[in-house]
Amino acid sequence: MNVTTANLVSIADLSNGEIEEIFALADASEKLRKEKVASGKIMATLFYEPSTRTRLSFESSMQRLGGTVISCSDMQSSSAAKGESVADTAKVVSSYADVLVVRHYWDGAVQAMAEHADVQVINAGDGGHEHPSQTLCDLYTLRKEKGELKGLNVVICGDLKNGRTIHSLVYALARFGANVVTLAANGMELPQYVLERLERDHLYTLAPVARDDLSAVVTESDALYLSPKRPHQLALFTEVDSTIQTRLTNMVSGLRYDALYMTRKQKERMKNVAAEGNYPTVGAKFLKQKRFEDTLVMHPLPRVDELSPEVDKDRRGIYFKQAAYGVPIRMALLHFLFEKQRQKKMIKSGKGAAMFASPHPVGPHCPNVKCVTINEPGSTRLRFELLSGGPAGALILRCFYCDNRFKVQFVGQTTSKKYCAYDITLADTVKSWVKKGELAIFDSIKQAEELRYEPYKSGPQRAIMDEAEIHSAISQMTEQILQDCDDNDRLLILGIKTNGSLIAQRIAAQLEQLQKRNVEVGEVEVYGTGDEIRRIVREDPDLGPIQLRDRSIVLVDDVIHTGRTVKNALNTVFRSGRPRSVRLAVLIDRGHREVPVKPNYVGKHIPSAEHERVRVQLREAEADAKENVVIYSIISPSEG
Ligand code: CP
């Protein structure tokens, strides 16, 4: 693997200062052209997916800089069609060119190729992950038109889940201090991992905002406001407080929108395009509104039918100019990267955090089925960034290739060959294992035991609720929910996966019995890779995704402790739609809150110490297990 190459894989590879440097070079692109700064260099374009703008503007840029271009007209006519790996292709083409410009359909594929190439590599779009050179064009356009990026209010609209241009763009806008309003098509909201990166790396937070002013012109979408200043923490409230809502409405109604960035539906990344429902559109109505008279309309293109040709003739429709900037920006980028390489200066990678690689041939897997590590493991070295402080003190792994995050289930110590389920009480122990290089992570008990690890002991278990008490607590919560519910048509019972959704199903079943009518029930996955909110019980594909707008939601979990899991679930809910209210039901409240959430319905209060664990065992989750709630201490692995 070449570790001394100046590549551009993620927008995080460039600092703000370097981006400004590239803009300055783009302003002087005619000079670069005259000086033929890339004379004698060869660029190879390897596009595994179609492209007009990115490919041709890179090729045009290289030729204008005096360099030459080699290419496969279609990667299906290359040896990729015979099954050649991305690793081998990168290695081989490195002998023919000085820089590889790669577009691939797998998330993280360009990172994998960069690890095997002997020359510089530029990401021209990897799956639904990132498209950093498009972001340079977008920022350059905004800066040219609006002067500076800081403080701009940018609306991003459409398929925010699969749009790679969007992901790179929101990170960059956050870094330059712009505010972002998201208007996602239903079911196509920004992925959780993007929001977490915004929150963790850029201190951004999100809140739902009134959509009325935008919905007049952009249909079929709900708005979220992402801001660096944390002026509102709506997601921390279990009732949508009307004062906060009014404040938000006023704040956003007064917003000046500097740009609306429209994107097409990324059909190529969807399993069932027909079931995806309506999609927002921008057209003549938008142009007529006085409040948008200075709002630029941007689009990375190609467009399909989400952006009307009527906007083409309007001064605000600047997407063709944005595409034209592709040449000066990519000329500047190529020259910048060649210079960095010549001076043997690595560009600063944003991925400098502590890494975990399994000490065994098997270990945790990225849960993203579109990740290169899943589709071509032979071309990757499976490794993850270790992040602590997820919900309920969870230990989180971030895939180095595709950025997706997931919760660590089981940890082990390589020297003692013992394993246990990860728990917040193990945080310090795990830190010491990381330091000594003794940490192993497993997806399952089966994986740990196949590697001949044995379980650590826990302290004696004490039953605190039996089956009858669990049943009675759920019935009591159901009755309270029924009493409080003033509109049954809006009611949605939403369980936090896994035990929370099992309890939610029991509550919904009891409500159905009492009311003699159907109750909608769904589940929310706090650490998912995409479809974090799913309908459960009724498997009717025609029903489409669950609608959250204006619903009266009861969010259900088995145990509440720090409140972080609930906060994350609330973030996911508010990101996916604007409910009328969210109330919280938990079977057990342990106390020790870090986040100010207060459950509305509690089965039993069980104050417990930090080092203790409370485990709810439900029949549906653990076949043959006795249904009960137990409390026990973790015997520290160092003592066990
Ligand atoms: N904006 C963009 O990436 O366009 P192409 O798919 O045509 O390269």
Taken from the alpha-carbon principal axes, the silhouette is globular
- What would the average pLDDT be, to the nearest integer? 85
End-to-end Cα distance: 40 Å
Structural class: alpha/beta
The fraction of residues assigned to DSSP E strands is 15-25%
How many strand units? 27
Strand order of the largest sheet: 7-8-6-5-9-10
- So what's the oligomer here? single chain
**What ligand species are in this complex?**
phosphoric acid mono(formamide)ester
Helix content: 25-40%
Q: Report the sheet with the most strands, covering strand number, pairing sense and barrel closure.
A: 6 strands, mixed
Q: Low-confidence parts, pLDDT < 50 over ≥5 residues?
A: 229-241
The tally of helices reads: 19
Computed Rg:
26 Å
What does this molecule look like?
The protein contains 19 helices and 27 strands. It is of the alpha/beta class and 640 residues long. Helix 18 links the parallel strand 20 and strand 21. Helix 2 crosses helix 13, helix 3 crosses helix 13 and helix 6 packs across helix 7. It is globular and about 80 Å long. Bound molecules: phosphoric acid mono(formamide)ester (CP). The site of phosphoric acid mono(formamide)ester has 11 residues, from helix 3. Phosphoric acid mono(formamide)ester binds next to helix 3.
Q: In brief, what are we looking at here?
A:
The protein is α/β, with parallel strands linked by helices and 640 residues long.
